[in-house]
């Protein structure tokens, strides 16, 4: 009877916390403000941020075309040479403000409610990013990101984790080349082929996010990732991120032997890793192919094998306020990770990792619905390893956003994870998140969010919380 009463008490507290979260979300509608924009590309081309974004950071159709054109107005062949000066043999923007911006994101206050433990923290934004983006020439663009980050979970040798803070190269750092223009001597050939509009082929090389062109990109979400918690080198709580893009496997390591957080966004759906990407768009169809260095490999790969991928996307609609896209993906990881030969074994083996799935996006009027279903399968496992783990996993994420007014955006996201990996460690997850963003300007927003664990709470790093409530900020200047 005591356990039953205690359980009811905990459920009662959880219900109250959830009710307060929902109330807080809708209270943000009570503070109206004017809305305008000033970030880098808006300054350069004298446009509003909403020319490219529904609300930052989500891109609209024009914003996607702007990215595809190598950070240029589509079909203009740069069109901003009058704002450039020549440095040696390279053109560069005269005004630094036209190519630079600063973004700050993260929770200002966060409350995690578990069973008998509640963590409440007052913190500063987790990430402050400085980026430089523009065009060197009519055919060559660039995106360089420098980041001051705090609390990001990284694995260390020996199966340990740490919360890292520091300044350095951020998520993305690449060149983008318009190969169609670079090697074409016929200006009339630009942008067309027998009546079909063609953009590209484009090549991105460096530290890239290949999922930029996916129907559900990893780097452009309204509901931001929440860092996990490390205690004494072990993971007490995994980061909260879209489960579709998570690594999904308990006991996984990089090729260099560093453990990988189960909810880490990896492979094609990384927020940034070394690779080379080629994509071309013809009419409504986009074809993308490329190679990545490997699972969080950095500048070295243990056996020089690379991970190829292929993605196709079809756009639809574009009339009467309805548009969207459907994408299909396959990614072949070659010796891209390690896993123990058996439960508790100190010997590890390199494994192949197959990822495949699809994503879709539908926009109607002021409503945006998008989601992804991604499967993962480990291959090339020894017999003793297969006996101790689940070699298949999948994740599902769906999110809906709607603009209630010019300054208020409401979001809801559902995440489901069927994890793989060693059976003695694995756990599954289901989380629902509600969020409201109040925009003081198009490029400056405060948000309040609530995330609730829908499964039975336990002590695994995936399930040891009941509710998360957070107040945060997301701005770009």
Describe the secondary-structure layout.
Blueprint: H1 2-27, H2 40-45, H3 61-68, E1 84-87, E2 90-93, E3 100-113, E4 118-122, E5 127-135, E6 140-156, E7 160-178, H4 179-182, E8 192-193, E9 196-208, E10 229-231, E11 234-237, E12 249-250, E13 253-254, E14 273-282, E15 285-292, E16 307-319, E17 322-340, E18 348-364, E19 367-379, H5 383-386, E20 389-390, E21 392-403, E22 408-418, E23 420-422, E24 429-441, E25 444-453, E26 467-476
Parallel strand pairs: 12-23
Antiparallel strand pairs: 1-2, 3-4, 3-5, 3-26, 5-6, 6-7, 7-9, 8-9, 9-14, 10-11, 13-17, 14-15, 15-16, 16-17, 17-18, 18-19, 19-21, 20-23, 21-22, 22-24, 24-25, 25-26
Please characterize this protein's 3D structure.
This protein is mainly beta. It has a single domain, classed as Beta Barrel (Porin). Helix content is 10%, strand content 50%. The protein contains five helices and 26 strands. The strands form four sheets. It has a 16-stranded antiparallel barrel. Strands 12-23-20 form a three-stranded mixed beta sheet, with no helix packed on it. Strand 16 and strand 17 form a beta hairpin. The longest helix is centred in the first third of the chain and has 26 residues. The radius of gyration is 23 Å and the shape is globular. The N and C termini lie far apart (57 Å).
């Amino acid at each position: 009877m005591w356990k039953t009463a205690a359980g009811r008490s905990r459920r009662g507290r959880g219900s109250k916390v959830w009710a307060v979260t929902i109330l807080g979300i809708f209270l943000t509608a009570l503070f109206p403000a004017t809305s305008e924009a000033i970030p880098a590309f808006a300054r350069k081309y004298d446009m509003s941020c909403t020319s490219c974004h529904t609300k930052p950071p989500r891109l609209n159709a024009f914003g996607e075309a702007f990215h595809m054109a190598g950070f240029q107005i589509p079909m203009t062949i740069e069109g901003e040479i009058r704002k450039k000066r020549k440095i040696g043999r390279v053109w560069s923007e005269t005004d630094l403000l036209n190519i630079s911006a600063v973004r700050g994101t993260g929770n200002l206050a966060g409350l995690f409610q578990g069973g008998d433990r509640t963590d409440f923290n007052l913190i500063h934004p987790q990430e402050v990013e400085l980026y430089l983006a523009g065009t060197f020439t009519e055919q060559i663009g660039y995106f360089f990101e420098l980041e001051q980050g705090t609390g990001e979970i990284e694995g260390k040798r020996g199966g340990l984790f740490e919360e890292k803070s520091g300044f350095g190269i951020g998520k993305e750092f690449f060149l983008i080349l318009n190969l169609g223009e670079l090697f074409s001597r016929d200006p009339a050939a630009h942008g067309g082929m027998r009546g079909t509009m063609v953009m590209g082929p484009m090549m991105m090389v460096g530290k890239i996010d290949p999922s930029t062109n996916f129907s559900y990109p990893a780097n452009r979400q309204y509901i931001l990732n929440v860092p996990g918690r490390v205690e004494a080198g072990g993971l007490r709580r995994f980061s909260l991120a879209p489960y579709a893009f998570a690594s999904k496997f308990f006991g996984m390591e990089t090729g260099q032997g560093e453990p990988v957080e189960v909810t880490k966004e990896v492979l094609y759906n990384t927020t940034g890793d070394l690779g080379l990407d080629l994509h071309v768009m013809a009419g409504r169809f986009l074809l993308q192919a490329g190679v990545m260095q490997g699972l969080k490999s950095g500048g070295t790969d243990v056996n020089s094998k690379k991970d190829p991928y292929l993605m196709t996307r079809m756009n639809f609609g574009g009339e009467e306020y309805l548009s969207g896209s459907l994408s299909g993906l396959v990614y072949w990881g070659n010796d891209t990770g390690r896993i123990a030969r058996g439960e508790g074994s100190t010997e590890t083996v390199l494994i192949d990792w197959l990822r495949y799935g699809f994503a879709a996006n539908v926009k109607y009027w002021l409503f945006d619905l998008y989601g992804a279903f991604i499967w993962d399968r480990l291959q090339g496992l020894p017999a003793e390893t297969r006996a101790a783990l689940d070699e298949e996993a999948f994740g599902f994420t769906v999110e809906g956003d709607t603009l209630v007014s010019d300054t208020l955006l409401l979001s809801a996201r559902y995440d489901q994870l069927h994890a793989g990996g060693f059976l003695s460690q694995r756990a599954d997850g289901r989380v629902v998140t509600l969020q409201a963003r109040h925009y003081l300007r198009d490029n400056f927003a405060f948000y309040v969010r609530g995330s609730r664990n829908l499964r039975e709470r336990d002590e695994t790093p995936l399930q040891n919380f009941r509710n998360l409530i957070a107040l945060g900020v997301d701005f770009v200047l």
